Amino acid sequence: MVETAAHLVDHVFPALPVRQWVLSLPKRLRYHLDDAKLQNAVLHSFLRAIEQGLRQSLPQGDGTARIGAVVFSKVAYIPGGYGGIGEAIAWALALRGAKVAVSGRDAIKAETLATALRAAGHQALGVAVDAHDVASIRASVDAVAAHFGSLDILMNCVGIQREEALLEVSEEAFDEVVQVNLKAAMFLAQAAAKKQIDGKRGGKQVHLLSVRAQLGMRGRGYSAYTSTKGALVMLIRQHASELAPHGITVNGIAPTVVRTEMGRHWLDNPVTRKQVLDRIPLGRVAEPKDIAGAAVFFCAPASDFVTGQVLYLDGGITASQ
After folding, report:
1. How far apart are CA 46 and CA 127, in angstroms?
2. 33 and 148 belong to one structural domain
3. pTM here?
4. How far, CA to CA in Å, does 78 sit from each of 87, 109, 170, 268, 299?
5. What single string gives the DSSP state of each residue in 58-106?
6. Are 272 and 190 in the same domain?
7. Which of 42, 131, 270, 311 could covalently link to 184 via disulfide, CB atoms 3.0 to 4.6 Å apart?
């Protein structure tokens, strides 16, 4: 569990040697910390101490205190939040002080993650949502706002791929990808914006895209996926333009292959793994914490003057293709 705690700390303070500190704890202390809840409580207290120190060390009154990537007491809604990337983002935001709601079609998975977050000392909620149904999308946003009293951050991690070659694309599969990847994003953004505007304190909206928003895929059937991710780029820019007067920023993060369960079909096969790695200048795939770090930046005050942008987390693919 100490190693697990250190992994979580890496999501929060990757620039600080906290991992080394945790792993250097005396063995006798590790023996006492054999209860998961106690270990998480100790970790939580340690992070709070760091938070207190950061706040005291930053100058006040000149805006400098806003540079940190912190989201204390903000309410963050993460549709698709119990997947590999979504879960990493949920932990990262919670460890930064956010109240986190995660959702997906599987209510049990959403609540399981929420339970783990609460056991670690965070405020969390699990919600069921069907991205195929606009009424369900609106109801999920209402549920989050009602539970926490507000909604500050939308971190949309919803997305699917139905691979079919161009000459074999079916209307049913194409429509489903459009519904989940694009239409759901539209109405999640709309429902969240209404809550954010009513709250009169600005807000953040962040959408998870892919490098396929910019690059086609040779030899694979990605017509629906690439077209919806590309369209989402323009949706982000339009929403950024419309919501700017309300102090709401809208941005996107677009990773390449990430080492998650969904990325295994690329990485488990030696042939496709080599193809992927050969195309990435940095020579590795993304880790969930790489995506979580960018998500925290866009959800935090550090990005207050950034809107309508898409950050490609691709190890250099889009710079070299």
Report:
1. 29
2. no
3. 0.78
4. 9, 13, 30, 28, 11
5. S-SSSSGGG-S---TT-EEEEETTTSHHHHHHHHHHHHTT-EEEEEES-
6. yes
7. 131
Q: How far apart are CA 99 and CA 118, in angstroms?
A: 10
The residue whose two tokens read 């489903």 is 176
Query: Residue 126 in 3-state DSSP?
Result: strand
Residue 82 is which amino acid? Y
Amino acid at 260: T
Radius of gyration of the chain (CA): 20
The tokens describing 213, both together, are: 């928003």
254 close to 311: Cβ distance less than 8 angstroms: yes
pLDDT tens-place string over residues 69-115: 568 789 999 999 998 889 999 999 999 999 999 999 999 999 999 99
Which residues, in sequence order, are CB contacts of 67 under 8 Å at separation 6+? 58, 301, 302
**Are both 157 and 281 inside the same structural domain?**
yes
Instruction: Give the domain range for residue 10.
Output: 1-57
What domain count does the chain have? 2
Question: Do 273 and 159 have their domain in common?
Answer: yes
Cα 178 from Cα 159, distance rounded (Å): 10
Residue 38, in any domain of the structure: yes
Digit-coded pLDDT (tens) for 138-164 = 999 999 999 999 999 999 999 988 889
Number of H-type helices and E-type strands within the chain: 14, 7
Instruction: Using the structure block, give the residue that is written with the tokens 């709401």.
Output: 248
Cα–chain center distance at 154 = 9
CA–CA separation, 43 vs 10, rounded Å?
A: 12
CB 228 within 8 A of CB 182: yes
Beta bridge partners of 312: 254
* Burial (0-12, 13-18, 19+ Cβ within 10 Å), 180: buried
Provide the annotated active-site residues. Answer: 225
Distance CA 127, CA 101 (A): 7
The three-point CA angle 101-103-105 to 5° equals 165
